[in-house]
């Protein structure tokens, strides 16, 4: 894009040009163009980083320091007191147990939901590609269209269904709901992935007499580690970050971390303790952030995979 | 495809199996395995949608048992100022959010695509907010925009007495506060999509454009962007359906306030269903949300699947 140097040889040479130097022109690092590009990028980076900075510094300050009113300043004497309080004793409107119960609820919701939804979606994708039956494509099409429908449309009927099943207000209800709404994107991911595998493998196994499950477990699964990682990242962050299903289906004692966090910050009585609020916010964000920074490129692949192919 | 290509079904019969056998027994393990998907599709995506549409025409209050009242709920809906404010807000926010997300996402992708140094560092910084929940996003920005102790207070303490950034407390500006937080969370994702699209453009096209002496910006606008149609459409659909769902961010950042100035339809639905005790009204609102998504989706579906042989 910047190869003005390569164009130089094509465009008519300026009058009286001496010997044209060969090879790419050595580029100085500080060209005006580069400076503009980098300064725009740095400005945007500040916009993206500022909340992270504020979140961390505020959580390490004391309340008198915060009341002094400088959001940019570093904490003079960093302390984790606010973190401890946020974790163990911050008050929601109802109780004063901090975020810890919410954290464990989120763990209890995220792990089974992730495993179940990924397993079901993997089987779906496999059946859709290798064992098509009459109507399977129609089911898939509805599934994909369904993923665009706002959740509000399904909320009340699902409340009634889970109530009928006797699991409304329990972890099972949330897990089922996450499995249901994770299905479209995950099925799409696995379907596209299995479609990209060579069909000969499947056919060879069929010729050798392997059945549905045997081929799935012994041939397909060992080859699909990359897509499992993508699905895992997608589901762990997605389910951890969910608010709506948690607040509707989990019941008060099972509220996930996001709901607890919102209750701590937005419905607490008395003078707000901004350092505790920010500590609680950081704590809630830590899990997805850890997933993000550990997974690196895989995260990008995860968010782009479903989208670009869809 | 695979099973028709392979006549390997156990005991390949000469007679055609009966209809029942063909529907149920053929490929049975696959059907059993796909049962959760079928149940989900039939019960949730089809069943619940129809249920919601049907009961939006009843006068259900605390329980969905009301009798059929035609479009009464919809008349009430559009006579409720809170709903109208919600819709106006969503349209304003949605249009601005869509335009800014696409434009900023595209510009960032173009800048990052200039063979710069620290590319992955910039990408990491721009995408990390996308890993965070809307609740976290909303609460952080709520703190930053806190009029007394946040950015405004800080700037005033530092000597800019007239510095004003009280958007979350200002009914006329609160949507822009939402926008700042929403863009912070979502533009990185759009950038990643756009970058994937840019990288998918053949290097030869750039060479050809260069040889023809077409300026870089012109190449982007006239050649590259039209070539990225697939990615653009995908981005619009994903961002668009995300905008219609906008809920958590509002709950965390403003909770609809000040007053009702930042209410959105998803919140209206929730409040009427679960705390207002007026299910019929909530369902009517949910059906309107469904309708708006269908209006977004149909042109897309037509473009993507209507024309045969078109690449996505």
Summarize the structure.
With 310 residues, chain A is mainly α. In chain A, 70% of the residues lie in helices and 0% in strands.
Descriptive key words:
heterodimer; A: 310 residues; mainly alpha; disordered N terminus; B: 312 residues; MetI-like fold; 0% strand; flat; disordered C terminus
Summarize the topology.
The complex is a heterodimer of chains A (310) and B (312).
Chain A: H1 4-8, H2 32-59, H3 63-67, H4 81-88, H5 100-130, H6 136-146, H7 152-164, H8 171-196, H9 199-207, H10 212-223, H11 225-241, H12 244-249, H13 257-266, H14 274-295, H15 297-309
Helix pairs in contact in A: 2-14, 4-14, 5-8, 5-11, 5-13, 6-8, 8-11, 11-14, 11-15, 13-14
Chain B: H1 2-5, H2 19-25, H3 28-33, H4 35-55, H5 72-79, H6 81-112, H7 119-131, H8 134-144, H9 151-157, H10 174-199, H11 203-211, H12 216-227, H13 229-244, H14 248-253, H15 265-275, H16 279-306
The fold-level CATH name of the largest domain in chain B is: MetI-like fold
- Protein structure class of chain A: mainly alpha
Helix share of residues of chain B? Answer: 55-70%
Largest sheet of chain A: none
Number of helices of chain A: 15
Q: Can you tell me the overall shape of chain B? A: flat
**CATH class designation of the largest domain in chain A:** Mainly Alpha
Q: What's the Cα radius of gyration of chain A?
A: 27 Å
Main beta-sheet annotation of chain B = none
Give the low-pLDDT segments of chain A. 1-16
Q: Low-confidence spans of chain B: pLDDT under 50, at least 5 residues?
A: 1-14, 308-312
Q: Indicate the radius of gyration of chain B in whole angstroms.
A: 26 Å
CATH homologous superfamily label of the largest domain in chain A: MetI-like
> Which pair has the most extensive contact?
A-B, 106 and 116 residues
Number of domains of chain B: 2
DSSP strand count of chain A: 0
How many β strands of chain B by DSSP?
0
